[in-house]
Amino acid sequence: MQPTMKDVAKLAGVSQPTVSHVINGTAPISESVVKRVNEAIEQLGYIPNATAKSAKSRKSQIIGIIVPDVGIRFYAEMVKAIEMQLRKQGIMMYLCNTLYSNQLELDYVRTLIQHHVLGVIVGYSLLEEKSRQLLKKHGIPAVSLDVDGTTHDEYRVFVDNQMLARMAVSHLYDAGARVISYCSEPMGVNVLQARYKYFRNALQEYGLEFDERWCFIAQNPYDDYNKMKMGYNIAANILLHDNIDAVFASSDEFAFGIITRLKEHGIDIPQQIQIMGCDNDPFSKLISPPLTTIWQPINKMAGIGVSMLLSLIEGKKLEETSVCLEPNIIIRESTLKLKALKADV
Amino acid sequence: MQPTMKDVAKLAGVSQPTVSHVINGTAPISESVVKRVNEAIEQLGYIPNATAKSAKSRKSQIIGIIVPDVGIRFYAEMVKAIEMQLRKQGIMMYLCNTLYSNQLELDYVRTLIQHHVLGVIVGYSLLEEKSRQLLKKHGIPAVSLDVDGTTHDEYRVFVDNQMLARMAVSHLYDAGARVISYCSEPMGVNVLQARYKYFRNALQEYGLEFDERWCFIAQNPYDDYNKMKMGYNIAANILLHDNIDAVFASSDEFAFGIITRLKEHGIDIPQQIQIMGCDNDPFSKLISPPLTTIWQPINKMAGIGVSMLLSLIEGKKLEETSVCLEPNIIIRESTLKLKALKADV
DNA sequence: CTGAAAGCGCTTACAG
DNA sequence: CTGAAAGCGCTTACAG
Chain B window 27-46: which residues touch A at a Cβ cutoff of 8 Å? Predict the structure, then answer.
């Protein structure tokens, strides 16, 4: 059986609370006792029981992280960045993949509450109002990442998607595009809905017409969320419209699928259709043609989010409850200026 | 404050142990009491305290998963597959990224023990013997995934890397290659060392000469484990040897970097150099030229691993403590037969 | 079927 | 500086 504090106390010839004090530094203990206790710990290979500690102190050293799918690179990066920062604090992390399902999200929120996590980081805007309520009711602070800035998330760090959409439209406009298609993976998280909305607004700012006929949103397959495949499938719609000058895809991986299909049909990118994505996936600069994309500061977002959460856990009031970060456009060959503006032809 | 069992008991007019029995089904309780208790639970929004439960029952509902880096797609896939299966069992998952560091691994193992996890899944062969000992000492079952079959991991599910290396060499040989370079990311996990070793053996089987002069192993940068970048850098060495017919890269992402650099130098793939990778990364079929690679059954590996762990947790003896899975070669254009065998020129 | 009692391994006032 | 005591929220024999 694993040794307990009692065993350590016995071997060191002190009381069990004294061992607790030595380990946690919660009382001034004489050097000689500290030494005896540490020796006993060493000898027994004693490892404190974090579970019992949490039960008594009513505080765990765990936070929950909820993302749609760690299999998606964007979220994998986010999770990694969060984990690396939490580790420094000695905090463990429960990983929860909700697969864009309201029910799974709610189940996970319940479970996190059961486990008395210190706080939660959510990689999107919670789908269920009930999830939010439960966390609030149980006094568990939550910070949302990568949401749309207009939502009701109390604490959040996000990328300015209005700016992001403007960057995209502005760039494509300058590159000569007048009919711009928006292609999105399923809009299972609110930031994707926002991106679409801001895209429409941006078109207007540039005096371009928005037309649903050349905006295509993929259906959520749930069982197999493969962005490339979804992009490949959606591209069939693009092929039906020969007036489309450019495509703004909701993510790079989705764009990869689109590019693949268009190339199969002999379409010249960018001369016939310009394409850009979003996320600056590592592969975006390797695909042919290299993909124009918009970089989002995932690490910074995660870093600020964790800092905010840690402050909230300590009961501090935050100066900023909502932090907005700027994206950056990375221009590559997939949106090189058309040789001649179609409008002039 | 969050309601406890006591509060529920009070409201329902029963004792606290009775509430426990209703919730856990650990005793036959009359329908009327069950109803009253459930109503009280509903009314108070009571959520059981898993922490206290673990403290008392000395059993958590948590397993730990240790991988080098969830930012690497291979591990992200693995983690996702594991999580999806555990969720069905109502088990939570601590995610630990060890970044190929012995110290971080050991720290995490200690922390997992502190938290009294039911078991651990390790996505490689533990680096520290001490990690293994600690887990054993504390009676925590561990299943290793993606290891080399000749190691001392007691329970493991792995891909036959001898077969994998043979497939690669055999294919390249058939495609006309006689001088084959092996290029590897840092061999921070034992399966990569094994892959290299089996590659050498396979060369011998085909009567080919192994020569370290055209085998290149990247250094571990630790702070920024970017496979593509490492592949790009290592490719400088390939350029120095004009006798190399083909390159077998330890992973697709690593191969992407190599391909990028070779193409920059005007090298025709596969006519001048054939390249193949490993993992069947989703991009491997999009890159130009599409990359020949070897698919590994990650989902199956994770699935069997989790099943094994769950059995061990239940105290069952396993029929198979070591499961070996077969890889599959996927042939694409990056290793098309050379027009003429170099040997004939 | 239900409850009183003991206890999981620990923390935290409090007394000395 | 150190220990006796109470208690965290729960489970688990045991008695009735």
Answer: 45
pTM, whole model, 2 decimals?
0.94
Is the distance from CB of A334 to CB of A291 less than 8 angstroms? yes
Task: Count Cβ–Cβ pairs < 8 Å, chain A vs chain B.
Answer: 134
Give CA–CA dist A310/B75, Å, rounded: 27
In Å, what is the separation between the CA of A216 and the C1' of D10?
53
> Each residue's pLDDT tens digit in chain B (345 positions)?
788 999 999 999 999 999 999 998 888 888 888 999 999 999 889 999 988 888 888 788 999 999 999 999 999 999 999 999 999 999 999 999 999 999 999 999 999 999 999 999 999 999 999 999 999 999 999 999 999 988 889 999 999 999 999 999 999 999 999 999 999 999 999 999 999 999 999 999 999 999 999 999 999 887 788 999 999 999 999 999 999 999 999 999 999 999 999 999 999 999 999 999 999 999 999 999 999 999 999 999 999 999 999 999 988 899 999 999 999 999 999 998 755 444 443
CB atoms within 10 A of CB B104: 17
Q: Write a three-state SS string for chain B.
A: CCCCHHHHHHHHCCCHHHHHHHHHCCCCCCHHHHHHHHHHHHHHCCCCCHHHHHHHHCCCCEEEEEECCCCCHHHHHHHHHHHHHHHHCCCEEEEEECCCCHHHHHHHHHHHHHCCCCEEEECCCCCCHHHHHHHHHCCCCEEEECCCCCCCCCCEEEECHHHHHHHHHHHHHHCCCCCEEEEECCCCCHHHHHHHHHHHHHHHHCCCCCCHHHEEECCCCCCCCCHHHHHHHHHHHHHCCCCCCEEEECCHHHHHHHHHHHHHCCCCCCCCCEEECCCCCHHHHCCCCCCEEEECCHHHHHHHHHHHHHHHHCCCCCCCCEEEECCEEECCHHHCCCCCCHHHC
Q: Which residue is nearest to nucleotide C6 (CA to C1')?
A: B56
Strand partners, A59: none
**CA B272/CA B285 separation, integer angstroms:** 20
CA-CA-CA-CA torsion sign (A67, A73, A77, A83): positive
Q: Is B73 on the interface with A (CB under 8 A)?
A: yes
Nearest CB among B54, B94, B97 relative to A51 is that of B54
Residue A302 structure tokens: 């995660």
- Give the integer Cα–Cα distance in Å for B192 and A336: 41
Nucleotide nearest the Cα atom of B3 (by C1'): D9
Instruction: Please check whether residue A46 is in contact with residue A8, taking contact to mean a CB–CB distance below 8 angstroms.
Output: yes
